[in-house]
């Protein structure tokens, strides 16, 4: 089953494309539909159904991988910030399987990006402990060890100077406070040094839109751990969602966790 549909749900847009999991690329160009202003489960599921219908000739009845901007705990969304609060506490996997009429695998959006970078991107084939960070509105993180995801790591919320790290070091804070790359890099240095001390990873991968400006701040970071920019950019969520769906097919016993 080498073609699986990945859907990436965000606060402003819902994007989807069939993914060729042999090549690690979209099989055809993605479709993007604006997230409904009232982003209830019912309204978002209707957009997902539209995307699935668009690509039904490519994916048939195959399962679908879906990313969410929230933790996913055994198919349930415990809390959510950027979509309607009706999602909070919902058994989203069961709800969406019922609405969409097919098997669904849900994955946190940063976790999906991490999976994509390890399987097909900057950290492809890495044999050790990889920590992916996405620098954006907040700081998303993913931990992957020897290709296996440790889900729902919220390491943007580690304490730094008495408050959440992401409230000091996210790229949105750089823009909000008008920091130069040199000033921002000092905050990133503290953040990554703290992660390095806590986890002793083999590799950091830095994603998020700001990673395209890597040459402006990356060389300013001094760590013992190798740190490199992500390469899949806005393709990572969709590709990672498809990887998660394939993993669920190939390893059903590993992922069949009790609710």
Description:
The chain is α/β, with parallel strands linked by helices and 259 residues long. It has two domains: 130 residues, Nucleotidyltransferase, domain 5, CATH 3.30.420; 107 residues, 2-Layer Sandwich (Nucleotidyltransferase, domain 5). Strands 1, 2, 3, 4, 5 and 6 form a six-stranded mixed β-sheet that branches. A five-stranded mixed β-sheet has the order 9-8-7-12-13, covered by helices on one side. It has a two-stranded antiparallel sheet with strand order 10-11. Strand 2 and strand 3 form a beta hairpin.
Write the layout of secondary structure elements.
Layout (H helix, E strand, L loop, with lengths): L2 E7 L3 E8 L4 E2 L4 E4 L6 H14 L1 H4 L4 E5 L23 H9 L3 E5 H12 L8 E7 L3 E7 L2 E3 L8 E2 L2 E2 L1 H4 L1 H7 L3 H19 L3 E5 L6 H4 L8 E4 L6 H15 L1 H4 L4
Parallel strand pairs: 1-5, 5-6, 7-12, 12-13
Antiparallel strand pairs: 1-2, 2-3, 2-4, 7-8, 8-9, 10-11
CATH superfamily of the largest domain: ATPase, nucleotide binding domain
Number of helical runs?
10
| Poorly predicted spans | 255-259
- The CATH topology label of the largest domain is Nucleotidyltransferase, domain 5
CATH architecture of the largest domain: 2-Layer Sandwich
Helix content: 25-40%
Q: Would you report the number of β strands?
A: 13
Which strand-content bin applies to the residues? Answer: 15-25%
Count of discrete domains? 2
Order of helices and strands: EEEEHHEHEHEEEEEHHHEHEHH
Overall mean pLDDT stands at: 94
The dominant shape is: globular
The major beta sheet can be summarized as: 6 strands, mixed
The termini sit apart by: 27 Å
Instruction: Provide the gyration radius in Å.
Output: 18 Å
CATH class of the largest domain: Alpha Beta
Helix-strand makeup class: alpha/beta
